[in-house]
Amino acid sequence: MLYNTIKALSFSACLSLLFTFHATAGQADTNNPFALPSPFAGDQTHLQLLKSLSKAAPAANPKVIGLALSALDCALSQGMSPARNLTVIDYSLASTVPRLWVFDLITGKLLFNELVAHGKNTGENFAQKFSNTYGSLQTSLGLFRTKDTYVGSNGYSLRMQGLESGFNDKAMERAIVFHGADYVDPKLAKKQGRLGRSWGCPAVRRGIAQKVIDTIKGEQFLFSYYPDKRWLNASKFLNCPSNQRFAQNSVKQ
Fold first, then answer.
1. 157-185 pLDDT tens trace
2. What is the pTM of this model?
3. Which residues are registered as beta bridge partners of 86?
4. Which of 137, 140, 175 lies closest to 157, judged by CA?
């Protein structure tokens, strides 16, 4: 039933309401956007979805999950077709900790929590620099839509379409794809103090790559996050003109 609701785009409207500011918001727990009072709190179906994502991924920053849902809400409001799965990558975390989460939006369950590499010129253990430029060997931020799979130099891989002009819309041109890599190895990370790095692609463990790719392929959403002020202030998906969202503003402040 929830999936049908999402497909009807009422999910988008509900998220908009859940992320709206209220005068009482200042009295709420600002570390958890799901704890804020909501005019739609009576609809347990949608509220439970938001709560369950945070509960299913206790190591994830709930504000980042909130931003990802805010971006998804905006995408749906612009006419993009709904997706069952949402992948969230938090590049503010060290490469040595699992910072990729794949959620099932219908059940609210966590499907994967994995290590993920960033670009060679994005940083060492911690990401610092991001780019949309060909040849930069840097990771890109923002909302992506997953596309088709293929077998290339990195094995089984997944093409991604960057949806944000100036931030990730050159992903196809740059061959920024989701793939597995031998250098995404916990033992290697422990030895050298960081994961190996890609040329800008989100790379995961070789042993899990195909399972993750087969789960998130085919017009699903992937949200790549870092507290970059320029992106946060300019992203068309985090600054929808018709709505204000607590998750968005709380991270910016």
1. 999 999 999 999 999 999 999 999 999 99
2. 0.80
3. 103, 221
4. 175
Residue 57 has phi, psi (to 5 degrees) of: -130, 70
DSSP for 89-131, please give it. EETTS-TTS--EEEEETTT--EEEEE--B-BTTTBSSSB--B-
What tokens does 211 get?
């399972």
For the stretch 114-144, pLDDT in tens is 999 999 999 999 999 999 999 999 999 999 9
Helix 44-56 vs helix 62-77: crossing angle, to nearest 10: 130
**Environment class of 211 (CB within 10 Å of its CB; exposed 0-12, middle 13-18, buried 19+):** middle
Strand order in the sheet with 177-181: 110-114, 100-104, 85-90, 221-225, 142-152, 155-162, 177-181, 203-205
Tell me which amino acid residue 44 is.
Q
* Calpha distance 86→65 (Å, rounded): 10
Q: Give the chain as a DSSP string.
A: -HHHHHHTTHHHHHHHHHT---GGGGGS-TT-GGGS--TTTT-HHHHHHHHHHHHH-TTS-HHHHHHHHHHHHHHHHTTPPP-SEEEEEETTS-TTS--EEEEETTT--EEEEE--B-BTTTBSSSB--B--STT---B--EEEEEEEEEEETTEEEEEEEE-STTTTTTHHHHT-EEEEETT--HHHHHHHSS---BSS--EEEHHHHHHHHHHHTTT-EEEEE---HHHHHH-TTT--TT---HHHHHHH-
- d(CA 145, CA 130) in angstroms, rounded, equals 19
